[in-house]
Amino acid sequence: MAQVSRLVWRASDVPEELGELLATLGEEYPVSDFGRGLKLQFRRVEAEGTLSRVVRTPGAVRIEYNSIAAAARGIGSALAKLDGEETTPFKTLGIMLDVSRNMVMSVEHLKMWFRRLALSGCNMVMLYTEDTYELPGEPFFGYMRGGYSIDEIRELDFYAKRLGIELIGCIQTLGHLEQILKWNGAYGKVTDTRSVLLVDEAETYALVEKMVKFWSEALSSRRIHLGMDETHDLGRGRYLDRHGYRSGFELFNRHLGRVNEICGKYGLSPMIWSDMYFRFSNPEQNYYDLKSPIPDEVRRQIPKNVSLIYWDYYHTDAAFYEGMIRRHRDLGYEPVMGSGIWTWSRVWYDHAQTVRTVVPCIEACRKMKVSELFFTMWGDDGAYCNYDSSLAGIVYAADLAYGVSPDDTKRISHRYAAICGSSFEANIIASKIEWTLKNGAEEFTVKPSMVLWDDPLLGVYYSDCRRRDPEFDLKLIDHYDELVRKLLPCQEDRAAGDFEHLLNLLDLLIKKLEFRGALLAAYEQDDRIALRQIAVSVIPAVIAAVWEFDASFRRQWLDCAKPFGLESIQIRNAGQAARLEETALRIREYLEGTVARIEELDLQLDESCKIFNGLNGYGSVACGTCIR
């Protein structure tokens, strides 16, 4: 890792606008207003976009900047001993962090993230909160979910401003509200479908107004993200029963109009995800449809003051992004771009997938002169990602936005080491736990989380992977063994990703794959000695690995997040241990003659039944039923 420079500043020599930034960074970094070190000098300059220039002279570092974000990035460069000029055309550059799918990051940990974001040159953070905030008069908001109080939000806002970061509320005001609508006794009157609010209902807008009022009072930013994405079944539940069929376009625009009026009442400028305007235009509800026209009457009804966010974490071709950007402009709106740093359904930050999508996205945004860009970090399927590992993605994406070549890993690595205190290279090696297997012309990625929580006796996921490649488990074990060897020197590193926890996971995955392969072979051959050995010694070793993983998962979770939501993952892990014990019991019953066969192991599907793409998340592999 690069050796970090000690930087010294004097209040009398520093522009007043940078005093709070420097003092706040000094809470963690060798940036102080006393002692010895390289003297920090600053000069504000005029430039388009965001410019950060670092010039070293004997005993000093001069940072030329044209915004607080540019100055902060310059300090990050100085800490990493990086010189030169960097610019970005993006007036807004930041992240959106999902704190609604179990993991609610603690206030203190978010402050640490804010410091790293500032040193990367970012100036905006959205906290995606569906129900994870304490809404006055609505006791079920945040209940058993670790919701932020208004005082916590204000504390975060105050801290972010000191670092030149705009903190924006990112909520839901139409769909994705199943976590709150499950309290049917309290919210039955505003429920259309399981996750969507009831349009045209007075109580719906009373609730939305409470949401908007909360965020208008909690944050200094006058921007608010209203969500409203993926409302596929809008108007098809209770609304349909009461009022009959209305087109999705009609209901969506009418609802947005009402919510926009509420925002105006509180002086807020709203933004929404744009997908439903494109989805409603075609029968497949496909967001990424470059052809189906949006009716003129729909276009005219979209409030002109609402910003549309084009979200896309999937495409690998810059030309596609350009086409969708044009479609937004054809609607009459300058899009805000939401790309993705891949954390969702991952146990560790997925660098390869991030590279495949972020590089062409930034290329297209530069070419099309998009001015606002942020990177989403979702928590789908339970937010079990070791989130600090994704700091590597933040630094990487920010560097690309500032013009650093994707191939300049040396420069990226130096910055990462200086501001995160860890090895970028080790993090990227760890990210290869997401591994794509090749079997002839076919490729498929084996998901560690699916292997982890795959039922050990039923083997839903294991069986599907084996139908694709009969030797997948042997190949995967070899790959995981190689990762363990490479990562063992990093075992004690927890600065930006908990490598000990990852090694515990790799150990469990290896043991589980070995167990499953041995179990099937022994049962098929009716090798009773091998079966007894599996029940007596192999399964207990796997169970021990489950509890080792569970313990480190708990530790790394509580290091960064509130305790609520942890129970979901602990239940999954305990379920694994219980089902492994059941497997040992079934083996003993078979060996003792209590049962004539182990029915779960007799199940076979034809090799043509490759359902891999249909298996998505814990619920699809944890058991053979949807009742869980």
Q: How does the SSE layout of this entry go?
A:
Elements: E1 7-8, H1 19-25, E2 31-32, E3 38-44, E4 50-57, E5 60-65, H2 68-79, E6 84-88, E7 92-98, H3 107-120, E8 124-128, H4 150-162, E9 166-170, H5 178-181, H6 184-187, H7 202-218, E10 223-225, H8 238-243, H9 248-265, E11 269-273, H10 275-279, H11 296-301, E12 307-311, H12 318-330, E13 336-340, H13 351-368, E14 372-377, H14 391-401, H15 409-420, H16 424-430, E15 435-439, E16 442-446, H17 448-453, H18 460-468, H19 472-487, H20 499-524, H21 528-560, H22 566-592, H23 599-602, H24 618-621
Parallel strand pairs: 1-2, 1-3, 3-5, 7-8, 7-14, 8-9, 9-10, 10-11, 11-12, 12-13, 13-14
Antiparallel strand pairs: 4-5, 4-6, 15-16
Walkthrough of the structure:
- 48% of the residues are buried.
- 46% of the residues lie in helices and 13% in strands.
- Strands 7-8-9-10-11-12-13-14 form an eight-stranded parallel barrel, surrounded by six helices. The protein has a six-stranded mixed sheet with strand order 2-1-3-5-4-6.
- The longest helix has 33 residues.
- The protein folds into three domains: 81 residues, Double Stranded RNA Binding Domain, CATH 3.30.160; 332 residues, Glycosidases (TIM Barrel); 188 residues, N-acetyl-b-d-glucoasminidase (Four Helix Bundle (Hemerythrin (Met), subunit A)), CATH 1.20.120.
- By secondary structure, it is α/β, with parallel strands linked by helices.
- The chain has 24 helices and 16 strands.
- The mean pLDDT is 96.
